[in-house]
Amino acid sequence: MIAETVCSAVAAAGLGIAAVTAYRKRFLSAVRIAAYSLVPLGLVMTGVVEWLADTAFSPTAWAGFGVLGVSWLLFAGTRAVERRRGGTRKERREAARGAARSEAVAPAASAPSLGSGARPADTPASPPRGKPATDDFSDIEAILKKHGI
Q: Is the pTM of this model over 0.70?
């Protein structure tokens, strides 16, 4: 009962402010203020305020919110584990099939052939220290795999 009275008073005060704003020839702002001030009155008339007041003091409602929270935590936890493992079981199986297909191709098939001639002077004779020659694109591949590409 008190909540309905407060909402009605807020609506009446808002309509009064809207009237003063309209008197000052700021009609667009007055209409906007009137729209905002009618919201609490509409909530009182539809019974939402009474429902909210009953819900706020109901132990059953709070238990229901607790159950919803636990449900959300379970969903979020399973999603986190899924991301850590690399997707669902189906996605991992498809990724393994794709890796098996890519291993069937000869690894040196796409490497350019330099022939029997001498190396050009600007080409280094050995791969740079710290990274092996086969690790050129491994970081890029890891990023693409992470995003499922």
A: no
